[in-house]
Request: fold
Amino acid sequence: MDIEPKILLVDDEQNILRSVEKTLFREGFDVETASGNIEAFQLFQEAIEENEPFNLIILDLNMPDFDDQESRYAGLELLERIKAESPDLPVIANSAWDEVETAKKCIDKGAADYFVKGRNDEMLRKIQAILGISE
Amino acid sequence: MDQAQIEANVTLEKALRRANLLAAAAEVSQNITQIMDIDELMPKTVDIICDAYNFYYSGVFLIDQAGEFAVLRAGRGQPGRIMMENHHKLAVGGNSMIGACTSLNEARISLDVDTEKVWYPNPVLPETRSEMALPLAIGNKVIGAVTVQSIEAAAFSDEDVASLQSMANQLAIAIENARQRRELEETHAELLQAKTYQAIATATGDAIHWIGNKAEPIGGSVERIRHDVQLLISGIAGILNKGQISQEIKDHSLIQLVLQEATDIQQSNPNFIGAVEKLTSLPLKKLKRRLSLDSTLEDLQIIEDAATLITKVKEDLIGPAREQAPRATMIDDVVKDAVVSLGLAPNAVTMSIQGSPPLVLADPVQLNRVFVNLLKNAYEATAEQPQPQINVVLRPDPGGDFVQVEVTDNGPGIANDDLDNIWITFHTTKGIKGHSGLGLPACRLILEQIGGHISVAGTSGQGSTFTASVPIYTGKEAEAKGESGKGKILLIDDDDSWRQFAAAVLEEAGYKATTSGQGYAAGNYNQYDLILIDDILANKDSADILKQIKAAGAISKTMAVSSNPRVERAKEQMLLGIHNLLPKPYTKISLLSEVKSTLSAIS
Reply:
């Protein structure tokens, strides 16, 4: 693939952001990062305005919401806003919690997939599947 | 002797006895109000009663919890000791005088035991001729009784009965007060423990999530590093194996090592060959992206950062988790110690103390933690200011119950929205480096556990002020025993309130106290019987001075004192050979007792 798929990675834990960004970068993706809803949504809109929209968004759930307050389900709000503007843009949600209910909520709101943090291989497989990339 | 003279003598004798009784009543009242400890109060009272009235015996009974028996709690002399050992008790409402007195709430008097119809002679009190039992009562509630016994018949005048009963009433109130005080203290201790457990539970719950997040990136970094190292070795080996290489290179031990390692890697992971081939086919630009020293170093940095953060959690959890041992403490000394122990640049912190602050009731080690945390925060907040300013002000609060310590910095301040969040565990406004978001919550928990509190003021862009309020110590200090001390004592400390206090107390107690001069030098260390050195000294490491003292051969006569004894320092100092390292005594009585016991242990 000549054009690198563009991924927006959203997490408020700086070290996780650094680490996942590295993993994705090594796999050949073009990665931008944001650490909360406000920053993420801004990057998402700018990319559309510049006519270079993201191909995929990966977001955390527990992070600063649109009022910049730490909230356990801030990521769900972000997911809704993104899906409202770009219904076809795939979004993968992730969380530190291995909870079925949380996963269901995300899928309900339009997430393409859900994974538990720390499982990098699983994350890569899901991304490749969603973007239709074969190894 | 005529009748008039006899009457005059009788009157005089009566007046003298009356004066004695009044003096005794006054002594009992005074003791009753001074002695807070119930176990100390009762034996003292029986002694005072017997001495003042010249009675044969006196004893204090308290009714047990079931209300069935009056149990002897203090008795005069040898008979008292024997009865205490035998757990002497009398049934409430029984035939004994104490039994009747406690059930009826009225005094019982027997002026001649020989004429009493019902009288049980007590084998340990064979000489009793008259006896009186006085109820100890708070209003209608009888809590016990006092017995007084005389070897004379008809020993009690009406005046005696009245004055003894009023004394008994006072005693009853004092006992009840002491009981309530003990109950309050126990409740307080339970509350303290409950709060501690609650704090630990909250912090642990948060910590699990937090540590999970901090540890999470480690796995990815380790996996990348492991993969890259193997990939690099396999890749180089692959090229070496394909091309023509000279014998000289083949014989090189490093090359042999690479080839050997690559064989091992391929044996344990056959799929690697594919990865290697894919990698070696990439152009340099793309290859760099997959495999670079920068990337490995960054991964190591991620691991290091995660480890630092996780270790920091442990430090901050220890604070509230450690059980507190509150005692009378000089707060100015603790604050000063915290400033000095941080090793900040001179003049980085200005300190002003308004008046002479009273003693506070706190665990100095925990209090030190609070101020170290506040000062660290202030220091970090001002790190980017052209002229960093940290001011510490100590003042009594207007209500008179606390000493307030204000720590003010001229850093960027805290946004209004964040003013409440800073007390939440694991919330941090300072980014990722070295902060767990536990420091301030730990400060708050520590202060709340001892009945203090902490608040913050300040607006974004104009610095912030943290005010810690620490409860004033209200306990009465018992009088130090009047024995005069002998010996020469050297005090090595900053010229602060503790040194002044210690010098004054030691001088007053008869010791010859000398304070060290400039740079803590003190001439011949051997001339002293005891050397007291503060563990933390401004602008100087106490270890250097301890080495000088050791060289002079006086190390075994040296005792270190610290507001915040630390394991590492204690270990170093004990290895140097000091006699002991102790928490600083902040009251007269504790200082004198430490000095006395140390001097006798040394000699």
In short: The interface with chain A takes residues 209, 212-214, 216-217, 219-221, 223-224, 286, 289-290, 295, 298-299, 302, 305-306, 417, 421, 427, 431-432 of chain B (CB under 8 Å). Residues 429-435 of chain B have pLDDT under 50 and may be disordered. Residues 158-242 of chain B form the longest helix (85 residues). The radius of gyration of chain B is 37 Å.
